[in-house]
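ok here's the first one, seq then struct tokens
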Amino acid sequence: MTVAKPRTPASGGELTEDEKVSLFKQLAATDPADPRRETLRTALVTEYLSVAEHIARRFSGRGEAYDDLVQVARVGLINAVDRFEPERGSDFLSFAVPTIMGEVRRHFRDASWSVRVPRRLKELHLQIGQVSGELGQRLGRAPTPTEIARALDLTVDEVSEGLQAGNAYYAISVDKPAGEESESASLADTLGEEDNGLQSVENHEALQPLLRDLPERERTILMLRFFGNMTQTQIAKRVGISQMHVSRLLAQTLQHLREKLTDEP
């Protein structure tokens, strides 16, 4: 196979869209052992470095050095370039941005688990996040817990347990804004009143059966919002409904959980 020598710009933004598509196709068709693959890979990574830097900047000011975040974001970018499948017809940025953000979030998760969690659950939580992204690209929507379980050869309960392990790096999930803006009402506010049951989300024994009994769509939306760190707009795109519908379902589901937890003896 003949591989055209790619231009290797010193900074991003110098390749045309057609050139980028061509490079991705060449990269996908090049054997991993072929030395030309590294040249193609370097050209693409260099082209999108500004995207990684932009994402790192979004996460700065949270106790981690910006330069360290840039390095982590670049690792995510490299992973995105390596894993992107141009034959699927999707835009690279729509795949790369969540991949890079996922890498940065994993960095924070690994560094800031607020309570002690077994290593098995930490690894399971990260596996679920990775598989969810891959299934989401393939399906064009958010995967259900059942689909995630099937992909990982787990039970739905095990997937639920892995997702709930994410509570350990949210110091308290109910204090997180429930809307799109940082000034919006928190989960606790959405529930309508202070609720000690939901403020102790770490109480898996009480919460797990309630989550398991939810309809699959409502459970998926809840998991993506509070355990998957996705905005309502992102969830709407994943699930295939409007953001307003997501907001309404979240409110109804949270009210249901609050009532159930309040009824617990």
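and now the second one, same deal
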Amino acid sequence: MDKFDAMRIFVRVVESGTFTKAAETLNIQKPTVTRLVQLLEDELATKLLNRTTRRVTVTPDGAAYYDRAVRLLADLEELENSMTGVKANPKGRLRIDLPRPLAHSVVVPALPDFLARYPDIDLEIGASDTPVDLIADNVDCALRIGTLTDQLLVARRVGFSHMGICASPGYWKRHGKPAHPGEINVHHTVIHMISARTAKPFPLVAHHDGESVDIQGKRTILCNDVSTCADLAKAGLGIVICGTFMTAPLVASGELKICLEAWKIPPMPVSVVYPPNRHLSTKVRVFVDWIVELFAAHPSQVKPDNG
């Protein structure tokens, strides 16, 4: 038994959930998959999987083995690539996690270009407004918006998200547009995005000509999903202050209207983060370089980081 082959097969079984799907994705016979996983368990003298007629589940020992196996196989792939010149043609599975609105408006529409450049990379994409645990979930890299708090991750700042003050035309018609952000705190409802880390609203401070105003709103609507915040504003329920990568398409369609453009909200940093054990990965490196290039092509939504 080739232990690395058995390890790869075991990893695929865990990720696909069944022996049948693992065999299909690996283009080998199901009995081969079953036999090699059994041999691996015999070699380790440990049960790695619980089997039923419909699905397999991972035992605690199997979960621990899977985590180590994924890292070991990634390191082995990188070593082989470095010795065989595959750096120019990276291949294999790349697991990425993206903020949902940034994925929808900027990244996903451009992915055909990335896959045309790197056709041997297989993408696995997660999209959510709640950050995942990259190390625990074996994610290769992720985009993060805002201040980073996880000191265990390697980070590269790739740009800044512009911020805009918007509401629906109907809302402005009913309540009038403020001439100064201080009026928002007296007369208007503000839709606040809640931080997934602190469960508190993100601070919103507007600056103009040496003056700064903390925007709270007379009334507030709190929400933990930035896409829903924009939907609430579209419905005419209040003013939303969020990244233009989210609001730009809605402004272009006329569903939202901007106000107080002379006042600037500090932009939110956008970073690529990845676990320390992924720092040599060719797949991660080319994806990060592509993201930097992509943001440079969308300066109205994400300002490139020019150092």
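notes on #2: The chain has a mean pLDDT of 85. The chain has ten helices and 15 strands.
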